[in-house]
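Bug #2210: token dump truncated for Nodal modulator 2?
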Amino acid sequence: MNKYKVVLSSQDKDKSLVTVETDAHGSFCFKAKPGTYKVQVMVPEAETRAGLTLKPQTFPLTVTDRPVMDVAFVQFLASVSGKVSCLDTCGDLLVTLQSLSRQGEKRSLQLSGKVNTMTFTFDNVLPGKYKISIMHEDWCWKNKSLEVEVLEDEVSAVEFRQTGYMLRCSLSHAITLEFYQDGNGRENVGIYNLSKGVNRFCLSKPGVYKVTPRSCHRFEQAFYTYDTSSPSILTLTAIRHHVLGTITTDKMMDVTVTIKSSIDSEPALVLGPLKSVQELRREQQLAEIEARRQEREKNGKEEGEERMTKPPVQEMVDELQGPFSYDFSYWARSGEKITVTPSSKELLFYPPSMEAVVSGESCPGKLIEIHGKAGLFLEGQIHPELEGVEIVISEKGASSPLITVFTDDKGAYSVGPLHSDLEYTVTSQKEGYVLTAVEGTIGDFKAYALAGVSFEIKAEDDQPLPGVLLSLSGGLFRSNLLTQDNGILTFSNLSPGQYYFKPMMKEFRFEPSSQMIEVQEGQNLKITITGYRTAYSCYGTVSSLNGEPEQGVAVEAVGQNDCSIYGEDTVTDEEGKFRLRGLLPGCVYHVQLKAEGNDHIERALPHHRVIEVGNNDIDDVNIIVFRQINQFDLSGNVITSSEYLPTLWNYVVLLDSTLPRSQYDYILPQVSFTAVGYHKHITLIFNPTRKLPEQDIAQGSYIALPLTLLVLLAGYNHDKLIPLLLQLTSRLQGVRALGQAASDNSGPEDAKRQAKKQKTRRT
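Reproduced locally. Full output below:
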């Protein structure tokens, strides 16, 4: 034991203090005269801070005639006690006592019991300040911890009172949470406005709670269950978000909304027909009026106003007045894009559809606002009543139709709603009918049944005759068609009236050859035409010597003798085949190549084929042709003595032109070359330039001036000029006579030289 100083002080203030020190066992001794004293132990400050307190703090004593042996100081240790009050059975609890002045000094008590009140006591507690706490995180307490100070007395009346059960919620969005206990009345309902994240609040009573989120967000469950006896974190994660929309119309009509999602797994949602806000309010008013009426009847309270024709003012229902609002909603996923398209039988919407993307971070609110207006309806009637008429509605000036409908069994139709600020055109059509607009009406049509004519053309042996050209015309109708393999040709959709037909095909004559027919409304005529063979054909081929077909070769059949006035021609196809039609029986023909149009053919083998036409077609008339060789050979000879032949090895090529020199200036180029090797390529450049008319006029002006001066001079000196001209004429005649004599006396060498000069070639 530590040694402590003990002070003895007398009640007499004049006497001094006596101080001694305890021994190792804590004993001490004073010598004192009789009198009244008090003894006090001096505890060091460090030990005082450590919680050491002696009791009593001072010991009073009186010294008489004997020793005082009962002076004793004992260390003070207190007890801290209290109780725990629970809403239900307490179960297992933990109470801790922790010193506030001495770090690390902490004591715990484990409590357990199936009662709603339990007590606890901490013994041997040193003096000082302490914090007492109760450990149960899932419960709510009036005071979860208390501070007490131990001085000289025991500490009691510490109480922990449970106020509820802790509910922890982890929320993905801020919501309102509504809860009540199963089986209990509405008085137990509680409502909490909670923020995003982890929230804590207390439930006042034990039991099972039904928790319902109220928000613009939809969670994984419509409601959740929480049991206070099995506490856990309640996690609410929003999976959908409430999107609102409004359609405002100037007329109360049926309105349907189709909502399509960008998520493939989400089917299209069709809402409606919707009721307007005004309709719903009116229905609510009617329901309230009816409820009050039934209540009056139940209570037997009949009022005088009920006998009146008009109900009381307070029982009047509000009149429906526009504009009308149609509200709708949709629960969308986060990041989902929705397309909202309204529809109505009589309304048009602006815009026709809207798109919105839902982020999901907060309440989407009203994302869709669409306005509806009454549309235009186009109605009409077919006279007489005709079902299945195709009615085409187009915007004026548009290239493609807008709407196509068909008339009903009464010949009527109705199209709409359409935009009233646009112009439209209405057309009608039906196979087998002509429809014309009824004057003075919009959309009404007069129907006329069309007629049809079917022609059956066959040969004299009753076999179908294909390839016959049949011409049919009448009014504004014109048609020229060929019969098919069955020999039948049908003309449909003909207006009533007169028509003229004429069949045509080479080598045949037809009965009837032509005819005018009358077609009535809705009538279908059938006309049979017979063709008689009057001529025949010749079939053959034109090919080259190696058997390749020759395409585009003109071939003709030329009549002979009495048939010389007849002739036919044709051209070979890509296979070299030809067919000469219209050859008359009993005639002889020469089948040959035409002189015109066959410039690429040099000759044919044989030159012609002789055929005699009977009562059948002629086959296998084949001709072999030789193509024209695109080459020109020029040959010639040079007449000279053999001794000069080795010197003639130079060639001259001279270019010539037919351009008049009076209008063009040009130089004719020429090239000389030696015939060495197999080939020689030369280039001749020819660049003529056209003479300008201004230059010709200017040159004529320059020449005219001196000529005029000479004429004037000659007229002035004519008496001297005439004798000189006569003398000059006589001299020129003498020179011409001498030249003629010299030409007659020239030798053979000059003649050969002149001949050689004339034989120079130009190519």
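Output looks complete on our side. The chain has five helices and 56 strands. Marking as cannot-reproduce; reopen if the truncation happens again.
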